[in-house]
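Exercise 3.2. Students should predict the tertiary structure of the chain below and write it as structure tokens, then compare their answer with the key that follows.

Predict this chain's 3D structure.
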Amino acid sequence: MAALIEIERLTKRFGAFTAVDDVSFTVDRGEVVGFLGPNGAGKSTTMKMLAGFVTPSAGTARICGQDVIEAPVAAKRALGYLPEGAPTYPEMTVTGFLHFIARIRGFGGAEAHERMARAMAMTQLEGVRLQPIETLSKGFKRRVGLAQALLHDPPVLVLDEPTDGLDPNQKHEVRELIRRMAPEKAIVISTHILEEVDAVCTRAIIIARGKVLADATPKQLEAPGKTLEQVFRDLTLKQEAA
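Answer key:
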């Protein structure tokens, strides 16, 4: 059975600069993959190509067997995407925005309201559901972005810095939510926070300067006498010096 996420030799160039350089990996159902690297490593660009928002210079990406370039609508139906910054319509209320997302996803009537209620419950937004998004804290705005990614219950989730701006309790709640969803989904979490990988990920892919440096479980990446943080630092320093 094919993996739910398939990335093959994905490359993105901006003029003479190569942001993502020949990246390949797959993600099966039940896996939570931490896509880990320093700022500017190519994480967000890779996620944007997988989500169909940036066109690759070379290579392919498939979601549930659907090529993100050749069959973009089918691929996006199977994807829940939380982008960096989680752009929303700030003048909308939380309920209004999620109802808008539900309509875009093809849901109406009772089903739309049921899915909105479920997404708000999962992300603990009921208490602010009637507030304009522009009045919310950064943490609540992040949760609105997560709610829209979960609303259609997709088999694939791509989450770019999902706990950015959350306080420690909110981070714990989001990580618990990811653990509960994990058995039924393929999840990629783009992050530069090693704690995130240790907390929820079954695999870690380390990227620097657009190239994959390692792909293994967090435990496998911990060399004798070294923590994951030390291994990550050593790999990125080695790549930067190359």
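Discussion points: The CA atoms of residues 78 and 95 lie 23 Å apart. The beta strands are 5-14, 17-27, 32-36, 58-63, 66-67, 79-82, 156-160, 186-191, 203-208, 211-216.
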